[in-house]
Structure formats: structure tokens, C-alpha cells
Design a protein that fits this description.
The protein has about 650 residues and is of the alpha/beta class. The protein folds into three domains: about 260 residues, Alpha-Beta Complex (2-enoyl-CoA Hydratase, Chain A, domain 1), CATH 3.90.226; about 180 residues, NAD(P)-binding Rossmann-like Domain (Rossmann fold), CATH 3.40.50; about 160 residues, N-(1-d-carboxylethyl)-l-norvaline Dehydrogenase, domain 2. It contains 26 helices and 17 strands. An eight-stranded mixed sheet has the order 12-11-10-13-14-15-16-17, sandwiched between helices. A six-stranded mixed sheet has the order 1-2-3-4-6-9, with helices on both faces. The protein starts with a strand and ends in a 12-residue tail after the last helix. The mean pLDDT is about 95. The structure holds coenzyme A (COA). The site of coenzyme A has 17 residues, from strand 5.
């Protein structure tokens, strides 16, 4: 096995080079190799100092998330190594580029000097995994940049640009060649003999003013007990302010261990890997690359077509937008310019950049102008004869190898694909809402794997999470949402109010949806429900327990998910979780509906579904879920043999 880190001697300078593709994540094996290379540096007194740098596309992008599930996982070896790096008697500098995240920042904080490439980004994303930085990030970062700035980075999880990192003092200097600059800085420090800067010996510069921020963090954490990382971060930063470094280290270490085992973190780690797995297309030949996309066509200048055009322009992709109606084209143009103007007024975009993006979208009435497009998104209204007519035209106009993507919510993508005369190049796309982050990519019976790969890749270029679905009514998301909506209606007929139902759905004690079903799916009204109940002879109950509402909203949806898997509509259980967390406001800290079902236990879910089936005759437990429940297995672990 090649070493993931080695010590290179450049005359009297040591260079510790980490090489663990793709993102130099700190797997336990990598930490062992870094420690061995550092020991070699310690042993070689002929070296005046050390530069820590990385091969590949980025400096260390964090701990290896996959290794967090290993029972033997511990931060202790890495933390001990960091202490030794900081304590070194000779200068150590980090040469930073790419996405310096989590453990990467913590490694840099243990060094005496930090030099970064302009364009590098820095962040503490652990909170997005339900964790806190577990390698002294909560202790060294506030000592360097202050409690206020550290709190924002650690609790917010967002990364910052290199100039901000420089302004905060997180990096000492920016350089176009950070490796060369770090070498120079180490030499200079060695020659000058000036005391080395060890962050653990400092106090946070704003310690005196930190109380209000700490109190606010604790109050926020108390309001959101379902995210225990918030309280742990507040406690660790509190320790950084009020206690010696070693005690803060102990507070952070025990909090990290507890969080690692917390349901929220396990769920968030599941979503992290599920999102990445969703990009993998089964059946692709080895080394297959997505088809090149430089020019996009959008047919139909309605809401969906307009939103798609804005998204492409924002990603620097030029768009030809076609609509037969002048008025629709004018409306779309106005909407695009208004969106860009809002970005300018919020200071997120310069006037010049807005003008450039606006110029990337060109409107025309002629379908023939789509002949150069590498992919055409057809976004005309949901009407089969119209879709078939348009598909036929696109099949003729589009160049060979161009992809035709039909935006369908419920229509049969296979019929539309057949009408193009080139079904291998044709697929469906469906956004739960044009402005949301999800794009379901619908594979027809004949869709080529590389066409799917191209659209999944393109989706991520425009900031959307793509999940592939097979053809069925509603695909993955809307098909499950229909079951959810049906039960919402049934609960109202039975006597629950929309407020009670939404309250249960939105309460983190039950599910924690961003929005309850009435708000999300229907403008339900109690009066309507009462009238319908009377008409159908349904006896409305005086009160329905919250638990029943919870079970009836969630469990049938899970049941539908199992059916969707059994039918092969979704390739992987995690794909369903990604659809719901990215597109329907399902809380990521629950892991998605499938993961949540497993956490509850399939036996319990099936038993409750059986219970309701005895009361109503329209419930049928999925045979797949019943089988897994009987065997004590998890739905998340279920795999189709083919994948
Ligand atoms: N641990 C383990 N694997 C990781 C990883 C990590 N910290 N960060 C990225 N990877 C893997 C991904 O799973 C993916 O693997 P795959 O190709 O087999 O699916 C691969 O590295 C590339 O990551 P991806 O996210 O697809 O690339 P990107 O260029 O879009 O983004 C990062 C790169 C580093 C910005 C992004 O992966 C990221 O944010 N990673 C998490 C960083 C983090 O949270 N660190 C703190 C951990 S406590």
C-alpha cells in the first residue's frame, strides 16, 4: 500500500507531503502515515523547519467521514500529533489551497505559520454532520481569530474565502505559490530565531466581550435540543474562554465522542454519503465521461423554463430560450433581469456580472434555433398531445448526440421519448418546485446511462441535487407526497385540524418538516373537511392523538418508499432520502424517511401499519418491508442485486 504521507528532504528543509485522493481526508491510516513522516522530521536535526503540503486538488478537506462509523475510531492519535507539531522546536508552516475544511483547518492551526493561495476556502463544516470540530478546532480557532468569528464559523458551518480568512488572521499571508512562500517563511523563521507562535498558549483576543455571544449560543441550543451539536459547541467555546487549554481539550473530546453516536449525526452522515451515491449511475462503462454541455436550449418560457434559464446563466452556460408567444418571452426576460437586479441590490453580484449573465440568455420564437444545443429542456405545459408534438419536432431539430429532457410531473416519459425517435437521448426532469434544490431525473426504458450521467452532472453545476427515478406516476417525490397528502385529508375528515396536523409534522419531537402538509401540499380548510365527512358518513372524532397523526403521516409514506424500491423506481434506499431532504423539506438530521423508518424499527412501522389496516381497508403493507421487518433488517441496507 503506498504511503499517504511522506517526508521529503529539500536540502535542509523538510516537506511533509500528504497524498490521499480525492480530497486528502484524514483516514486513520493517513494519520498514521503523517505521524510517521513527522517523526522522521523530528529525528532529523539537520532540517531547519518543515512545510506541510498536499498533493492533488486540495489541502486536507477534513476527517474521513467514512471512518467515523468504525468502532475503533478515535480522534486521539491525530490530536496527539497536532500537539507534537505545535510543540516542535523548529518552525512548521502549512501551504494551503483548495477547500481547507474541518481537520484541514485544525492541522493548519497546529502549525506556526499559515500561507494560502488566493481562491482557497476555509470552513468548519462539522455542524452540518451534527458534530463539532473534534481536533481542537473549538480551542485553537477562538484563540486565533476570536470567539465571535470562531462561533460564526463553527456554528454556521459555512466556508469563507481566503481574503476573509486573511482579514480574520486565520492565515498569515496569501501567495500565488503558497508552497514556495511557505518554504521561504519557514527559512526566515528559522534564521530569525523569533519565538514560534503556538496558539494553545494564547487567550482569545475578544475573551472579555464573549459572554453575550456565549449566552446567545446557549439559548439557541436550548431552543433546538434535537441538534445537540449546538450545545456542545457553546460549551466547548465557553471552555476556550474560561478554562486552560488542556481542560478545553477534554470538554471538546467528550462532546465529540457523544455527538458521534448521536442519532442526528448518524443521520446527517447518512445523507452526506447518500447525496454522493445518488450521483452514481449504474451501468456506465469504465471511465465514462458526461457528454459536454456548452450550449443549452430551453423550450417554453413559463415559470419552469425561466427558472432553469436563470440557473444556467448563473453557472455561465449560454441558453437559447424558445417560445412561440412574444409575451411569454418578454415576461421571462423581465423575470430574469429582475432576479439578477435583486442580486445586484443585495451586493451579491456586480452590475457587469449581471449584464453578462443576462446576455447569456437569448430568446427566440424559432425551434430551429435549438439545432446547436447540446441539451434541450422542454418545459411546455403538462399536456400529452402538446408534449408529443414538441418531442417529435425536437427529434428532428436537435443535433446528433444532443439530449432531450422533457419536464414531466406525471406524464409517461417513455411515450414522449418514443415520439422523439431517439429514445436513448431522451429522459425526463422534474423539480419539486423550480426554486428548490432537487431535480428528479427520469430514466426512460431506453435512456442511455451516459445521458443520465450528463444531466446529473449538469444539475450539480447549477447547484441542484439530482436523483434518478424510473417512470411511474409522480416519480419518487410526488408519488410519496400523494400518499402523505391523502392521509392529511383523511385525518382532517376524521376530525384533526390542519393546524394540529402541521404542528405534528413540523415539531422536531415528531418529524421536524420545514412545512406541514397543509402548507406544503394543499390549502386545506376545516370547513371543507366537515362538509365532506358529513357527505361520506365519516364520524369525526372529538380529538385525535398527536402520535396517531405522526404515524399516519409518516408510515404510509415509508410503505410507499418500500414499494418504490421493490419496483426498481429508485435504485437505492438513500436516493429516496435525498429526494425528501433536498426537495420536500424533510429534516436532514432525521436522515430522510427511509433512514427514519430504520431508526424507529421496521417491526414497529409494520405493526402500526397492520393496526391501521384493520381499521381501514385501503392500507396494504409492502411485502418487501414486511419481509425485512421479519428478518430484523434495515430498509436502508437493502440493495438491488443489479446495482
Ligand atoms: N471524508 C470522506 N470522504 C470524503 C470527504 C470526507 N471528509 N470529503 C469528500 N469525500 C469524498 C466524497 O464522498 C466523494 O467520494 P465519491 O467520489 O466516492 O462519491 C469524493 O470525496 C469527492 O467529494 P465531492 O463532494 O463529490 O467533491 P466536491 O469537489 O464537490 O467537494 C468537498 C469536495 C471537500 C468540498 C466536499 O466533499 C465536502 O464538503 N466534504 C466534506 C468536508 C467535511 O465535512 N469535512 C469535515 C469532516 S468532520
Amino acid at each position: 500500500m503506498p504511503k499517504r504521507a511522506e517526508l521529503i528532504r529539500e536540502g535542509d528543509l523538510g516537506v511533509l507531503r500528504i497524498d490521499n485522493p480525492p480530497v486528502n481526508a484524514l483516514s486513520p491510516e493517513t494519520v498514521v502515515d503523517i505521524a510517521a513522516a513527522f517523526e522522521a522530521f523530528e529525528a532529523d536535526q539537520s532540517l531547519v523547519g518543515l512545510v506541510i503540503e498536499c498533493a492533488g486538488r486540495t489541502f486536507v478537506a477534513g476527517g474521513d467521514i467514512a471512518s467515523f462509523d468504525q468502532p475503533s475510531f478515535s480522534t486521539a492519535p491525530f490530536n496527539t500529533l497536532l500537539a507534537r507539531i505545535e510543540a516542535a522546536g523548529r518552525p512548521v508552516a502549512a501551504a494551503l489551497f483548495g477547500t481547507v475544511l474541518g481537520g484541514g483547518v485544525e492541522l493548519a492551526l497546529a502549525c506556526h505559520i499559515r500561507i494560502a493561495l488566493p481562491g482557497a476556502r476555509f470552513g468548519m463544516p462539522e455542524i452540518t454532520l451534527g458534530l463539532l470540530p473534534g481536533s481542537l478546532g473549538t480551542q485553537r480557532l477562538p484563540r486565533l481569530i476570536g470567539v465571535e468569528a470562531a462561533a460564526v464559523m463553527i456554528s454556521g458551518g459555512k466556508s469563507i474565502a481566503s481574503d476573509e480568512a486573511h482579514a480574520l488572521g486565520l492565515v498569515d499571508a496569501l501567495a500565488d505559490n503558497p508552497g514556495a512562500a511557505a518554504r521561504e517563511a519557514v527559512r526566515h523563521a528559522a534564521e530569525s530565531g523569533a519565538p514560534l507562535r503556538r496558539l494553545s498558549a494564547l487567550s482569545p483576543p475578544d475573551a472579555a466581550a464573549a459572554e453575550a455571544r456565549l449566552a446567545q449560543m446557549k439559548a439557541d441550543a436550548a431552543r433546538r435540543p434535537h441538534l445537540p451539536a449546538l450545545a456542545a459547541i457553546a460549551a466547548s467555546l465557553d471552555a476556550a474562554v474560561h478554562r486552560p487549554f488542556a481542560e478545553g481539550e477534554a470538554v471538546e473530546a467528550s462532546a465529540f465522542r457523544a455527538l458521534l453516536a448521536s442519532p442526528a449525526s448518524r443521520a446527517l452522515r447518512h445523507v452526506f454519503f447518500a447525496e454522493r451515491a445518488a450521483r452514481r449511475i449504474p451501468g456506465l462503462p469504465e471511465g465514462a465521461r458526461p457528454r459536454g454541455v456548452l450550449q443549452v436550449g430551453v423550450l417554453g418560457a413559463g415559470e419552469m423554463g425561466t427558472e432553469m434559464s436563470i440557473a444556467f446563466a448563473n453557472a455561465n452556460i449560454s441558453v437559447t430560450m424558445v417560445d412561440a408567444a412574444d409575451a411569454a418571452l418578454a415576461r421571462a426576460r423581465a423575470a430574469i433581469d429582475e432576479t439578477l437586479a435583486t442580486e445586484v441590490s443585495r451586493g451579491r453580484l456586480s452590475e457587469a456580472e449581471a449584464a453578462l449573465r443576462s446576455g447569456l440568455v437569448r430568446g427566440t420564437k424559432h425551434v430551429s434555433e435549438l439545432a446547436d444545443a447540446d441539451i434541450v429542456f422542454e418545459a411546455v405545459s403538462e399536456d400529452m398531445p402538446l408534449k408529443l408534438d414538441v418531442a417529435c419536432k425536437l427529434g428532428v431539430v436537435c443535433k446528433a448526440g444532443a439530449i432531450i429532457a422533457t419536464s414531466a410531473s406525471t406524464l409517461d416519459v417513455n411515450r414522449i421519448a418514443a415520439a422523439t425517435g431517439r429514445p436513448r437521448d431522451c429522459l425526463g426532469v422534474n423539480a419539486s418546485s423550480p426554486t428548490h434544490g432537487l431535480l428528479e431525473v427520469v430514466r426512460g426504458a431506453e435512456t442511455a446511462a451516459d445521458a443520465l450521467q450528463t444531466v446529473v452532472h449538469l444539475a450539480s453545476r447549477i447547484g441542484k441535487t439530482a436523483v434518478v427515478s424510473g417512470v411511474c406516476h409522480g416519480f419518487i417525490g410526488a408519488r410519496m407526497a400523494e400518499v402523505y397528502a391523502r392521509e392529511n385529508d383523511a385525518l382532517q375528515l376524521d376530525g384533526a385540524t390542519p393546524e394540529q396536523i402541521d404542528g405534528v409534522a413540523e415539531n422536531p419531537q415528531w418529524i421536524g418538516m420545514k412545512m406541514g402538509p397543509s402548507g406544503m401540499l394543499t390549502a386545506a380548510r376545516t370547513a371543507l373537511a366537515i362538509e365532506l365527512a358529513g357527505r361520506h358518513g365519516v364520524a369525526r372524532r372529538a380529538s385525535i392523538p398527536d402520535r396517531e397523526i405522526f404515524e399516519r403521516l409518516l408510515y404510509p409514506m415509508i410503505n410507499e418508499a418500500a414499494e418504490i424500491l421493490a419496483e426498481g423506481i429508485a435504485w437505492r434506499p438513500g436516493d429516496i432520502d435525498v429526494v425528501w431532504t433536498a426537495g420536500y423539506g424533510f429534516p436532514a438530521w432525521r436522515g430522510g424517511p427511509v433512514f427514519m423508518a430504520d431508526e424507529i424499527g421496521l417491526r414497529e412501522v409494520v405493526a402500526r401499519l397492520d393496526h391501521y389496516a384493520r381499521l381501514r381497508n385501503d392500507w396494504r403493507v409492502s411485502p418487501l418491508m414486511r419481509r425485512l421487518a421479519e428478518r430484523g433488517e434495515r430498509l436502508s441496507d437493502w440493495r438491488r442485486d443489479k446495482i
